[in-house]
Specification:
The complex is a heterodimer.
Chain A lengths: L4 H12 L1 H25 L3 H27 L2 H6 L2 H5 L5 H32 L5 H26 L3 H19 L1 H4 L3 H12 L12 H24 L8
Helix pairs in contact in A: 1-6, 2-3, 2-6, 3-6, 3-7, 3-8, 6-7, 6-11, 7-8, 7-10, 7-11, 10-11
Chain B lengths: L3 H9 L16 H17 L6 H27 L12 H4 L1 H21 L3 H5 L5 H33 L4 H30 L5 H28 L3 H7 L4 H12 L14 H28 L3
The chains are: A mainly alpha, B mainly alpha.
Chain lengths: ~240, ~300
């Protein structure tokens, strides 16, 4: 069994309740506002679409929403110790992890792919399939980010910080300085898929070949989930702050 | 009407001296309390006075910020350059992701623990007033950030002097770098503290601070590139006003003789340039005002 509806309901409430949903919504709204402004001022432009969707949406919006949803699905519960009430129920810990992963993935996909596709439509009427390409990339990146950040949530109390270190420092800073760092980046793996979907004229390039990217994406997701389940099985709940 | 026990109590009533004593030392007062709060918060921002676990991240990030300064001095000396590869004024911008992480760690640690464990009323039972608390936290975070940026600059300056790169040039660059660092520290401290004070949960505060600092930066940079490609460089300088990172970039390019990271290294000029320091100052004032307003009710 990989899905438990009660655990899912609780996780959805933890992720979308109160101010979290507003914060998740702020980023897509900003993307749409930028798209509308650029279309109104400069007209349809394929390079503008690539720049906004690649430079803003895929590079910062998707990882940030991934961090919030991925770590938010489990880290606060471990942090305040209320995870024991969940663990003491007759539910397999692997089921808890896979359920939380599915919830995190669905939230990330919902808050990233729809606005990116809409922004693509607004920016250049999805010409050269640029909008669809980035939508597909955001979809697969959401899956991998959720798995990796959920794992971080079970490993460390500073999960949010380490998630952001990966998303901002590794992918953005080292990626631009050290070319080798780019091959180990979820963003580049998903760009490989975007490169394939978009028309040849679109200026989307990735440093990773498509088969390699797909293998790495699958490996990151499966290994991340497996190890997160393993971590939860040996979790010790100790309250120290 | 009196009861039996009551009358019994009256007959046996006496006052025992059980040794309580009055405090007869000097009362150190409000300014002392304020100073203590600043010192305590500043030490906390680097994890001093806390367990080793809390020192790892601040000092780790500090090390990462200082390494490029050391490397750049070594490179300049060994290869015989006549100036440092990175200018003093743009050092903070170059290290922005690391600095952003440090701010995101330090700001919530400074305010959200007090909110979460409801220690705020304990502070206000002392002669500290609400505005003192806000001012102390603001000063401590600004100072922590300023140290974080200026110590690597000092290393680079010392190295530059030892490498005989020209005293006058290095000193003027270093002084301008310190001004840029001070602007950076005050602006970012105000924004980060306001965001962090809105939530008692540390993890959420970290994410919120990072998001408010980086999301506008990524958005503005992407739109600037588009504006530059569509042939409207006039829009680029006005767009720079909309994120803390580009705001600082514009200030150091227009007033401190640095080179901006805007498309085509564009330098703000005229009315747009004048707006940069105004917007920065306005932002600091607005954030401090909202912060004092937040603490009128916080924790009660």
């Amino acid at each position: 069994m990989i899905y438990n509806s009660t655990v899912a309901r609780l996780t959805y409430r933890a992720l979308l309740g109160r101010r979290r949903a507003l914060m998740l919504l702020a980023l897509p709204v900003l993307l749409l506002v930028i798209a509308v402004v650029i279309r109104a001022l400069g007209g349809a432009d394929d390079r503008a679409a690539t720049e906004i969707l690649g430079g803003f949406a895929l590079a910062s919006m998707v990882p940030l929403i991934g961090v919030i949803a991925g770590t938010g699905a489990i880290a606060p519960e471990i942090d305040d110790g209320s995870i024991v009430y969940l663990l003491s129920k007759p539910i397999s810990r692997r089921t808890i992890i896979t359920t939380k992963l599915l919830v995190a993935i669905s939230v990330t996909i919902a808050f990233t792919t729809t606005p990116i596709l809409l922004a693509g439509m607004i920016l250049n009427d999805n010409s050269q399939q640029i909008g669809s390409a980035y939508t597909v990339a955001a979809g697969v990146a959401s899956v991998a980010y959720s798995a990796v950040f959920l794992l971080l949530g079970t490993v460390s109390r500073n999960a949010v910080v380490f998630g952001l270190v990966y998303a901002l420092v590794w992918e953005a800073l080292f990626g631009s300085l050290v070319p080798g760092a780019r091959t180990l980046s979820i963003q580049q793996w998903s760009l490989a898929l975007a490169e394939r979907v978009a028309a040849d004229g679109a200026d989307i390039t990735s440093d990773v070949a498509l088969p390699t990217a797909l293998i790495l994406l699958t490996a990151a997701t499966v290994l991340g989930t497996w190890y997160a389940g393993r971590r939860l099985r040996v979790l010790k709940v100790a309250g120290d702050e | 009407m009196s009861t039996g026990t009551g009358t019994g109590g009256v007959r046996d009533a006496r006052i025992h001296d059980i040794g309580y004593r009055h405090y007869e030392g000097r009362r150190l007062g409000r300014s002392y309390a304020r100073r203590s709060l600043i010192t305590h918060s500043l030490r906390g921002a680097y994890g001093l006075g806390r367990s080793a676990r809390h020192k790892v991240l601040p000092f780790g990030l500090f090390g990462i910020t200082a390494i490029p300064a050391i490397v750049m001095v070594a490179v300049a000396i060994t290869t015989g350059l006549d100036e440092l590869p990175i200018e003093y004024t743009s050092y903070a911008l170059f290290m922005q992701p690391i600095l952003g992480l440090y701010i995101a760690l330090a700001a919530p640690q400074m305010v959200s623990l007090d909110l979460r464990f409801k220690t705020i009323p304990l502070y206000f039972s002392r002669p500290v007033e609400r505005n003192d608390y806000v001012a102390a936290k603001f000063a401590a975070l600004s100072l922590a950030l300023f140290l974080f940026v200026s110590v690597p600059l000092l290393i680079a300056y010392a190295g530059g002097l030892l490498g005989k790169l020209g005293f006058a040039e290095q000193t003027s660059g270093f002084a301008r770098g310190l001004v840029a660092a001070a602007v950076f520290a005050v602006l970012h401290a105000a924004i980060a503290l306001l965001v962090a004070s809105l939530t008692p949960r540390r993890g959420f505060g970290v994410a919120a601070v990072i998001a408010t600092l980086t999301v506008p930066y990524f958005a503005v940079t992407a739109v600037q590139v588009v504006a530059s490609e569509q042939g409207s460089p006039g829009a680029v300088e006005w767009l720079g006003l909309f994120s803390p990172g580009t705001l600082l970039d514009g200030i150091q390019a227009a007033f401190l003789g640095g080179v901006s990271e805007f498309p085509d290294e564009l330098e703000p000029s005229g009315a747009a340039a004048a707006c940069y320091p105004l917007v920065a100052a306005g932002l600091v004032v607005l954030c401090s005002y909202l912060l004092t307003r937040r603490y009128r009710k916080a924790g009660l």
